[in-house]
Design a protein that fits this description.
Elements lengths: L2 H7 L2 H32 L3 H29 L2 H24 L5 H29 L5 H52 L15 H10 L1 H16 L3 H11 L5 H23 L8 H20 L3 H29 L5 H14 L1 H14 L4 H26 L9
Helix pairs in contact: 2-3, 2-5, 2-6, 3-5, 3-9, 3-13, 3-14, 4-5, 4-6, 5-13, 6-10, 6-12, 7-8, 7-13, 8-13, 8-15, 9-14, 9-15, 10-12, 11-12, 11-15, 14-15
């Protein structure tokens, strides 16, 4: 670790929170991968369509309930609220474990649990992001978000690989049970955290209009919100299609598909650590835009050249670009938004970057199904080209209005 990363890692409350979150996120990725592979096994020739529906069900709940999570994050004790949301997710994982053990999991039931899990995630995400800002001094927030992104993406490496390894030993039910256990540490840590600074409550009559005004008042924040929305619609369509694409176009079994996700996670960890080392006051917007275009290029490479070796390289590039871009976006928003509005501002950002996702994944699944055997590959290629073109368009637009836009900082 660099000196800057070491300094932020010495923040005890942040370190404890991130380690507990790492364990929980590993369990979460075990469950996500298990659900996706189960859909692939159960749906047969309709796997692409049901994969899109699974992503839609989860993302729809995020879209609907993230604003609620953001509002609660500004009004409640974030530690207790986050612990409650994690308990809810643990109960869902236990229910999945029981149903899987009884061989009672069907595709419609998987969609129901995906939507319920999306509800828990919608409340947890603004809580967790806002809580990080309470654990460190303001000047350390960008580095803290780099480490937060690194732990999340480290879990993306470990979780799918662990799920694939455990399939022959404990089965789907055991994987769901492992996820249930992973929540315990985070619940305990949340209830015992000591905040560096207590967040000021939002005014009783406050609404999201305050956060909207904060975004509109800063042209750079407005541009980031637009970029997040484009990312949210087109960047995630590949994810639920990955098992189908990996099996049909690359000839991979579950461990090979898990390897693709782990390679993505490896790139994302490295990208996150680069962000965590950055303590300069330089303009971050060009790097955000470069990461945006780099992700599109990697996605286009994944779909355009369907070869195993190329796929692993493309996933690594995508992981590095996603972690860099989203970490810089999150850190910039955290720094510029007043503490009392962080929960709602994070909810707006998360609604753009994740909440719009269900419509993108549903469209991707339906298009891939209609396009036949090569459908997933063609959809992945198209999404990558759209993202790359959007990055070039934004670069030209920002260059034309450079005098009007201030530094991202």
């Amino acid at each position: 670790m660099s000196g800057a990363t070491n300094t932020i890692w010495k923040e005890r409350s942040l370190r404890t929170f991130l380690l507990a979150a790492l364990a929980s996120n590993i369990g979460n990725w075990v469950q996500i991968f298990s659900e996706q592979w189960l859909v692939f096994l159960l749906a047969g020739p309709l796997a692409a369509r049901w994969a899109g529906r699974l992503g839609f069900a989860s993302g729809l709940a995020v879209l609907i309930f993230t604003p609620l999570g953001g509002s609660l994050a500004d009004r409640l004790d974030r530690r207790k609220a986050l612990a409650s949301a994690q308990l809810f997710l643990m109960l869902l994982a236990i229910a999945l474990c029981v149903l899987a053990a009884l061989h009672q999991l069907t595709l419609p039931r998987l969609l129901f649990f995906a939507m319920a899990s999306g509800l828990g995630a919608a409340v947890s995400m603004p809580m967790g992001q806002s809580l990080v800002g309470d654990l460190v001094p303001p000047e350390k927030i960008p580095a803290a978000f780099g480490l937060m992104s690194a732990q999340f993406n480290l879990s993306r490496i470990i979780g799918p690989a662990l799920a694939a390894l455990l399939f022959p030993i404990v089965g789907i039910a055991g994987n769901f049970g492992l996820n249930a256990l992973s929540f315990v540490g985070l619940v305990v840590v949340c209830l015992r955290l000591r905040l560096r600074q207590a967040h000021p409550s939002a005014p009783a009559g406050g609404s999201y209009s305050q956060s909207f005004r904060a975004f509109r008042a800063d042209p750079q924040l407005s541009a980031l919100l637009v970029m997040a929305a484009i990312w949210g619609f087109f960047a995630w369509g590949y994810f639920p299609l990955l098992p189908v694409f990996g099996a049909r176009s690359l000839g991979l079994a579950e461990r090979g598909v898990a390897g693709l996700l782990s390679c993505f996670g490896l790139g994302a960890v490295l990208g996150s650590l680069v962000v965590a080392r950055d303590v300069s006051g330089h303009d971050r917007f060009p790097r955000i835009l470069l990461a945006f275009g780099g992700f599109g290029a990697g996605l286009g490479l994944l779909g355009g050249l369907p070869h195993r070796d190329v796929a692993f390289v493309a996933m690594f590039i995508m992981g590095a670009c996603q972690a860099t871009g989203l970490s810089l976006m999150s850190g910039t928003i955290q720094r510029k938004i007043p503490p009392g509005l962080r929960g709602r501002a994070n909810a707006l950002y998360l609604t753009a970057v994740i909440g719009i996702t269900p419509f993108g994944t549903l469209l991707a699944g339906e298009a891939a199904q209609r396009l036949g055997a090569r459908g997933p590959q063609l959809v992945i290629l198209a999404d990558g080209l759209i993202l790359l073109a959007s990055a070039l368009w934004l670069a030209l637009a920002i260059r034309r209005s450079q005098r009007r836009l201030g530094p991202v900082g």
